[in-house]
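S1.2 Input.
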Amino acid sequence: MKPEARRNVDTVLLPGARTGRDPARSIKRGPSRLPPGVVAATQRERLLDGLVLTVAQHGYQRATVSDICRAAGVTRPVFYALFTGKEDAFLAAHRHGTAVVIRRMAAAFAAAPDWCTGIREALRAMLGLLAGVPAFAAMAVIELDAVGPAGRRERDQLLTRFRAFFAEVPELPGGVAAEAMVDAVVGGVYCALQRRIDAGRTDQLPDLLPTLSLFCLAPFLGPAEAARRLAVDPVP
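S1.3 Output.
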């Protein structure tokens, strides 16, 4: 599968990429009814899509279970058969979507010939996916704080997974701890995403690729060497 086709497939898999009320996703009644497990999986997917679109539009605090069910075309009893409440559904959507993003980043990273190129290609994959589904980006990055302690724990776990891409960083001079530097870099990347998404410029996320690539490599290689590896001009 070509990289572009793979990105398109992954974008569709992100919650919020499709409307839950799409007639093509309706479950027909009658003798040919699908097996219960298939029905439940379809309803769950529709509810995750409905939640992401609703939260992106109204915010987590204002979104209600009824709003989510309406967006998904699913009843409240079905919602509560699948989730314990709004927070549970939100976290399920977040985990599912971020797993798609991490998987695509990992594939891009693994396909690259070296660590520097791998970081850039992993960033490219992430930025492209988030730009392709703005509702998921808003829900996963901006509204996560509104969930409270559970949301903060989810973000911490996500950032820990991002740190795995820096397992090959070179030793830093002057006794600077590589782990602390990686934490600073990962946090900085997340902050840059957050600012652009919060400003309603999610479609412009791919424009951050040169800056974020250099930002990720410069602390470990030096600005000039990082720029050389990335074939870009160093930041003055």
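S1.4 Remarks. Residues 60 and 143 are 6 Å apart (CA to CA).
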